[in-house]
Amino acid sequence: MTTKQLGSTAQAMVADGKGILAADESTPTITKRFDKIGIEPTEDNRRAYRETLFTTPGLGEFISGAILFDETIRQEASDGTPLRDALKRQGIMPGIKVDTGAKPLAGAPEETVTEGLDGLRGRVAEYGELGARFAKWRAVIRIGAGIPSATCIGANAHALARYARLCQEGGLVPIVEPEVLMDGAHDIDRCEEVTTATLHAVFDALSDHGVMLEGMLLKPNMVISGTDCPGQAGVGEVAERTVRCLRRTVPAAVPGVVFLSGGQSDTTATEHLNAMNAGTHPWKLSFSYGRALQDLALKRWNGAADNTESAQQALFFRAKFNSAACKGAYTGDMEQELRAA
Ligand code: 13P
Asked: Which of 25, 200, 280, 299 is the most buried (most CB within 10 A)?
């Protein structure tokens, strides 16, 4: 894989009006989502749910890539087609989550460091043979009294950089995801301060490790008020602060920034992205949402094959609305289309 090929894959992932579907929930995470609505967390239900998402008619118009969990990249649709090939048929590139989760940081039990570097070179090679074109690694930074520590930010930045370089060496485009959580009562100032410090540390580490910025994507949180903060910042302020933070920290050589939704409601995540795309930026600003694309689709599917079409319409329209938001062309009126579907 040449440098040029990595760059063109990264650019294709953020082609005009396209974003990424994050469907790489680990088994414990998807179990939590299933439990909430009473779906049995069996392997076959996970397979059937992901098949429902990936075979949504027309999804490839708005979605360039889908991030899968290890189990999913090896599963087959009900007609025997590997799910990764069902995606490719729609023009959607398969990607893979390669971290093995956020674990307590030694000496700092309230903080985590993401693991998964051991044996990663071999796993990247195997996933490439299975057809993956890109990978994801999520670092988690929690805001609280006296945290995050510089140690936590530094350890996570270092791991992200080692992961990113290994992926590029093995021909996969790394999605670098340092997520500052929105949980907590902190205000938007504090979120901006921590996100800025985190992104500075991440790009320092990426530079130290020789990661090629043209062949990666950044997947950050938006700069937003903590969930329990009494005064919630509005859409305009979130957009303005997020763009300011990115302009201060993210080199223009990075082709795209694909946001996580992090627990925002699906419509709020779309509105924020849309507001940011009212202006022009050195990088594409797009989405790599999990919950904000899937929440309604999962609720409508509810474990029953009979609900396939209704679930697929929910995903299709949310993808369409976020695609419009990538161009600053989303309006609240568009939600009518989904309500009518
Ligand atoms: P959310 O959009 O639900 O935050 O998920 C995105 C993701 O991939 C988290 O790692």
From this structure: 25
